[in-house]
Amino acid sequence: MFLLVLSHNIFNRRWYGRIPRESKQPRGRVVVALNLTFLSMMSLLLMTSIVVSRSLFSFLPIDASQLMVDLHKLAAYWAILLVGVHLGLNWTIVMNVVRSGLGMTVHNPKRALFMRAATALIAVKGVLSTVEMAFGLKLVNEVTMDMWDFTTQTPQYFLNYLSIVGLFAAISHYTVKLAPARQRLAQPLQPQAR
Q: For the residues 28-45, what does the mean pLDDT come to?
C-alpha cells in the first residue's frame, strides 16, 4: 500500500510545485489542505504500522502501547475517508485518463447514464456500509463491538470499505460539480436594461 502511495506521489510530483499558485484560489486552498492532511495521515499510518506490527518488524525492540494502536486505527479510518474525498476531487482527471486509455473519444449519453446509476448504487451501498460498520464512531475513536467477523467472507468486508470510499468520492465530486450552479443561484439578480 505504501509503495502505491509513494509511486502516486512521485507520478504527481509536479503538483507540489503548484501549491503556491493553487493556494490563491478557494478551491485550490481546499485541495491543498486536503492533500497535505491526507499525506500527514498516511505518514502517521506508516509510522504507527512499524510500531504496531508484531510480525514484520518483530526484530525491533519496540513495545506497542495502546496509544499507538489507537492512533494507527484512527489514522486508518481517516485515510479511508480522505482517499474517497481525494478520489472524488480528482474524478474528472481519473475518467479522462480511463477514456483516453480505452480510446473513448465520443461522449455517449447512455454510458454516462449507466455510470451515474452505478455511482448511485455504490453510494447507497456506502451509506449502508457506513451504518453497518459503525464508520462514523470509528472516525472519533469510539469503541465499537464490530471487529473483523471471521464468519463473513473477506471480499464482503473489503467491499463494504470500498463502497464507503465510493460514497465519499461521489459526495466530494458532485459537491464540487454542483458548487458553480449554487453560486449562480446565490447571486442577486441584475436589473434588466430597458
A: 87
